[in-house]
Amino acid sequence: MSDSDTGSVGRGQGETAGLSTIRLSVNDQVRQLEVDPRTSLLDALREHLRLSGTKKGCDHGQCGACTVLINGWRVNSCLTLAVMHEDDQIVTIEGLGDPDALHPLQRAFVENDGFQCGYCTPGQICSAVGMLAEVEAGWPSHATADVSAPQVALTDEEIRERMSGNICRCAAYPNIVAAIRGAAEGGPE
Questions:
Q1: H or E stretch including 156?
Q2: 3-class DSSP state for residue 40?
Q3: What are the backbone dihedrals phi and psi of residue 148, each rounded to the nearest 5 degrees, phi first?
Q4: pTM for the complete prediction?
Q5: Most Cβ neighbours (<10 Å): which of 65, 80, 159, 173?
Q6: Residue 31: helix, strand or coil by DSSP?
Q7: pLDDT tens readout for residues 84-99
Q8: Comparing C-alpha atoms, which of 130, 115, 131 is closest to residue 168?
Q9: DSSP one-letter code for 21
Q10: Alpha-carbon Rg of the chain, whole angstroms?
Q11: 118/126 Cα distance (integer angstroms)
C-alpha cells in the first residue's frame, strides 16, 4: 500500500522532517538549537548540548537516570520533548555544582559513599534536590504519616518512598538515604 493509497504524505528517500529552532535555558545559559520536534529533552541535552551528566538508562521513565530539574521540579527528561521547554529553567547535574564548589547533596553523596558505579548518581542527586523542595513545600507522599502536619517529617521511610523512582543497580540505597538525610539536616540548599 502506498502513501497515496492511505491518504498520507510520506517522505521520500533523503528527506527529513522539518527542524524546529528552539532556545533552551540550561544551567543559566541560553542555547539555541535546531532539533527534530520529536527530540526528547534527554537527547537534546546529551546529543546537541553535549551535557553527558544526564544519563540514558531505560528511555521509558522507569529508572530515573535522566532526572533533571525544570523550574525547580524533578522531571524524567526522556519523557518530555525539548520543544516543550523553551520558557523553562532547566538544571542538570552540571549546573548544580562543580569540583571546586559542590552542591550540598553532591558533597553528601561523596561523604556518605552514596554511589558505586556512579551511573545513576546524577539522576539521584537531581531527584533528591527536587524531592527536598517538595518536602519544603509541604507536599505529602504515600509514606507521610501525618498529612495535616505543617512540616513533613523526613524519615528514612519518607526518603525511600520519595526516591523510589530512581533505581540504583549497585544497590547503594542505604548510603543514598544517609546522604539525603545528611544534606537535609545540614540546612537549606
A1: helix 156-162
A2: strand
A3: -90, -5
A4: 0.86
A5: 65
A6: strand
A7: 999 999 999 999 998 8
A8: 115
A9: E
A10: 19
A11: 13
Using CA atoms, how far residue 24 sits from 17, 34, 157, in Å, is 21, 11, 36
- Residue identified by cell 533528591 is 128
Beta carbons within 8 Å of 38's beta carbon, 6+ residues apart: 17, 81
> What are the cell numbers at 116?
558505586
107-125: per-residue pLDDT in tens? Answer: 999 999 998 899 999 999 9
Which region holds residue 184: left if phi is over 0, alpha if psi is between -120 and 50, else beta? alpha
> What span, in angstroms and rounded, lies between the C-alpha atoms of 64 and 17?
29
**Secondary element (H or E) of residue 133:** helix 121-136
Give me the long-range contacts of 179-183 (CB less than 8 A, separation at least 24): 179/105, 179/108, 179/109, 179/111, 179/112, 179/114, 179/128, 180/105, 180/108, 180/114, 180/128, 180/131, 180/132, 181/154, 181/156, 182/108, 182/111, 182/112, 183/104, 183/105, 183/107, 183/108, 183/128, 183/132
